[in-house]
Design brief:
The protein is α/β, with parallel strands linked by helices and about 400 residues long. It folds into two domains: about 220 residues, 3-Layer(aba) Sandwich (Rossmann fold), CATH 3.40.50; about 180 residues, Rossmann fold, CATH 3.40.50.2000. It is about 45% helix and about 15% strand. The strands form two sheets. The chain has a seven-stranded parallel beta sheet with strand order 3-2-1-4-5-6-7, with helices on both faces. Helix 17 crosses helix 18.
Length: about 400
């Protein structure tokens, strides 16, 4: 089985190199790992005490981030080494100031794992949510370096729990972890059935992250003037199918203002969005504080603002639900905004739970969107109940970071 695993890693690396000739993301994937050892050796501090955090991509980074930042505050004697598997995580967070070292994770070969671990010499390692790399896990185990899984979540159909030769081989990786911090009791039960007892149901660290974001949200005077005391819908990370529904509602109704933060902020997409709108609309970069209150739609044409924009909303529409899946709903919910999204949300635990609780609403048609928007905007009682549910859901699920820190550094 180890031979087949190694063969798979080699084939994947070869395919990535071939794809790099025409695919920009594959090109970043390959170039980012070129001469990785000399790059690591030149940046390492031989006298430092490193903690190693590994994330697949940006979403996993956001789950690991609260733990990293808590450690920086409470245990400043450590330095942080942060690795990513995907370019979509590394390219955005390669200058993350809370880590002394940020780099790609080299391909999971025995030689790479040995060189990486012997160079970095971490005292503890943290893998976030899903990461299970055979040679890195066994390398840490051989060196008696404790490895922790943060915000893990397991499903019955995962390979670890299949009674096949491949499943039994992969299940061995679970024994390489010092402790599992999982999001829910179902994950803990699956691990315990597999003979893994070093498990704590700590919850999802993303709740701690969004609570911190809410506490540090920036004031945006221009958006305050745009709101002008009127109810505002914030549409976050919207895609074309979302925007076609939203603009249809905007064009047919009055009484609400809209802030639309598209997932894609290219000129082509912004022009398309503006052409769909029949109501007064303006881009954030083009409006002055003297005139912004005269518009009904404010289009956000830059990135990095969304988490602070939610504070000005009354309820939110979260994009992605007509594609592969919805974007982050917790950033809106933490401000007490009920959230509305498309039908593809069931693989997201927080969305399922918030829908069941009455703080979120899924729509599949324009008629359903119109009904929910009218219900929330016309009834203060409906809006207040959903708002309290959304805010309470986030508040009641915070605390995972503290549980992890207390257990790891006890």
């Amino acid at each position: 089985m180890t031979f087949l695993y190694n063969l798979g890693i080699s084939l994947y690396s070869l395919l990535a190199q071939l794809a790099a000739t025409f695919n920009p993301k594959a090109r970043l994937f390959v170039r980012g790992r070129k001469n990785w050892l000399s790059g690591l050796q030149s940046r390492i501090d031989p006298g430092a005490r490193y903690l190693w955090f590994h994330c697949a991509s940006l979403g996993e980074f956001e789950q690991g981030r609260p733990v990293i930042e808590a450690i920086r505050q409470q245990f400043p004697e450590y330095q942080i080494a942060l690795t990513f598997y995907s370019p979509s995580g590394y390219e955005i967070r390669k200058n993350y100031p809370q880590a002394e070292l940020v780099c790609y994770l080299p391909a999971d070969t025995r030689r790479n794992a040995r060189r990486f671990l012997d160079t970095l010499r971490p005292e503890k390692a943290f893998f976030i949510k899903y990461e299970f790399w055979f040679h890195y896990i066994t390398g840490l185990q051989e060196r008696q370096i404790p490895l922790f899984l943060v915000s893990g979540i397991f499903r019955e159909n995962q390979v670890f729990f299949r009674q096949t030769p491949w499943g039994k081989w992969y299940a061995r990786l679970l024994t390489g972890f010092e402790h599992f911090f999982v999001q829910d009791a179902a994950s803990a039960q699956l691990l315990q059935q597999a003979g893994i007892t070093r498990v704590t149901v700590s919850g999802d660290t993303r709740f701690d992250r969004v609570a911190a974001i809410a506490a540090a949200a920036k004031n945006i005077p221009l958006v305050e003037k745009f709101k002008d005391g009127k109810p505002v819908v914030v549409a976050g990370s919207s895609w074309k199918p979302d925007e076609e529904l939203l603009t249809r509602f905007i064009n047919q109704h009055t009484g609400l203002k809209f802030i639309i933060a598209p997932h894609e902020v290219s000129q082509v997409n912004l022009n398309r969005l503006e052409q769909l709108l029949k109501k007064p609309a303006i881009r954030f970069s083009q409006v002055s504080e003297n005139e912004v209150q005269n518009f009904e739609v404010l289009i956000i044409d830059s990135i990095g603002m969304l988490s602070s924009l939610y504070r000005y909303g009354d309820f939110a529409y979260i994009g992605g639900g007509f594609g592969v899946g919805i974007h982050n709903i917790l950033e809106a919910a933490t401000f007490g905004l009920p959230v509305v999204f498309g039908p593809n949300y069931r693989k997201f635990r927080e969305a399922r739970e918030l829908v069941a609780a009455g703080g979120a609403f899924s729509i599949a048609t324009y008629e359903e969107l119109e009904h929910i928007f009218r219900s929330l905007s016309a009834s203060s009682a409906n809006l207040q109940a959903a708002s309290q549910t959304a805010a309470g859901y986030v508040k009641n699920n915070t605390g995972a970071t503290e549980i992890i820190i207390n257990r790891v550094f006890c």
